[in-house]
Specification:
Shape: globular
Structural class: alpha+beta
Number of helices: 12
Radius of gyration: 21 Å
Distance between the termini: 13 Å
């Protein structure tokens, strides 16, 4: 299977992953043949990408770091919680911890933990999906740092609730489709303080979660907000969530901009390194994130085109690529798999929007 932009999908393609709304409705089931009518239905639900199964991606399996049904349950929980009027004063910490425990167990069940986040989301559900993805990424970093037990669970609870303060920010500001005014941005920045107050006053939620909500926009060099904290004055858990938050935000479509590719965002985070982020956190992050996710189309230095088949943990920029087309773009009658970690004459030079 492979992930493709909806506008690139041709009628007759086979859907590889079921698409559901957070209201529990099946929009399209796996195995269905895509028609123009179905494409319009997905577009109406603001779905911009889907997974398809075709000849060039046959037998390619996109790994799930967390089981799909757990991710879906977590998104539903976050949506139900953040749309409940009482959320502005308190939340059900028990439910949050239950879903975090499921996410942790699912991650730890993997033989090799590689973040190849593969959820299909609506632009309208961004906040809920983002909260869950940030939780997954933060837990993976935490595991990489040696966290376990209560320390890992506290990180998970704080990361899935890091944006809870946005329930206090007017919707017309949160969903504004173009640039915010300076006054509106100041209002957005208050979500950190609002989140801190909500979590601080919730029984069963540790202060670690409160500090994550308050400090996840702080930066190592003091350029962040709300208090321009520096270095070790920022809680370690908040420094973890800062990296996860930026990665998921930039690799997601938003109302006001298109997403960036994973490798572009990894390079961006790496370039900022110790200026904005905790260097130890960044070093762990790049060990566990897919630089070129499985199912992505790529162009090699030879001009040949292919699909990423397998991730290479030791050499993230050199995955196994299934070559499916020659330099002229002609599909090959016989495909070949090239392991870039051993075939050093090959390298990826560009993304192939196939």
């Amino acid at each position: 299977m492979r992930r493709v932009s909806l506008d690139k999908v041709r009628a007759g393609a086979i859907l590889a992953k079921t698409i559901m709304s957070l209201d529990g409705k099946v929009l399209l089931a796996a195995g269905m043949e895509i028609t123009e009518e179905y494409k319009r239905k997905l577009q109406a639900n603001r779905i911009s990408e889907i997974y398809i199964e075709d000849e060039i991606s046959k037998d390619i399996q996109v790994p799930e770091v967390v089981r799909e049904e757990i991710v879906y349950e977590a998104k539903q929980m976050v949506k139900a919680m953040m749309t409940k009027p009482s959320v502005k004063t308190s939340i059900d910490g028990r439910k949050v911890m239950e879903i975090v425990d499921k996410i942790i167990s699912s991650i730890l069940a993997n033989k090799d933990i590689i973040a190849n986040l593969c959820d299909i989301r609506s632009v309208d559900d961004y906040t809920f999906s983002h909260s869950v993805n940030v939780c997954i990424l933060s837990l993976i970093i935490g595991i990489g740092l040696g966290y376990s037990g209560d320390r890992l669970r506290e990180l998970g609870v704080g990361s899935i609730l890091h944006d809870i303060g946005k329930v206090m920010v007017p919707n017309d500001i949160l969903k504004k489709p173009y640039q915010l005014t300076s006054e509106e941005f100041e209002e957005i920045k208050k979500h950190t303080y609002y989140g801190y107050e909500i979590l601080k006053n919730t029984s069963g939620i540790s202060m670690t979660a409160s500090y994550i909500a308050l400090e996840h926009h702080e930066r190592i060099d003091g350029s962040g907000y709300p208090y321009q904290l520096k270095d070790d004055n920022i809680h370690k858990a908040a420094r973890i969530v800062a990296v996860s938050d930026v990665y998921d935000a930039l690799t997601s479509d938003r109302i006001y901009r298109k997403k960036l590719m994973p490798h572009e965002v990894i390079d961006y985070i790496t370039s900022l390194g110790s200026h904005h982020f905790d260097q130890e956190v960044v070093d762990v992050f790049i060990r566990f994130i897919a630089y070129y996710p499985v199912g992505m189309g790529v162009i090699l230095n030879t001009g040949e085109r292919g699909i990423v088949k397998e991730y290479n943990k030791k050499y993230p920029v050199r995955p196994v690529v299934r070559v499916v087309a020659d330099a002229a773009g002609n599909m090959l009658s016989k495909q070949k798999d090239v392991d870039l970690s051993s075939e050093l004459k090959y390298r990826i030079v560009e993304i192939w929007d196939v």
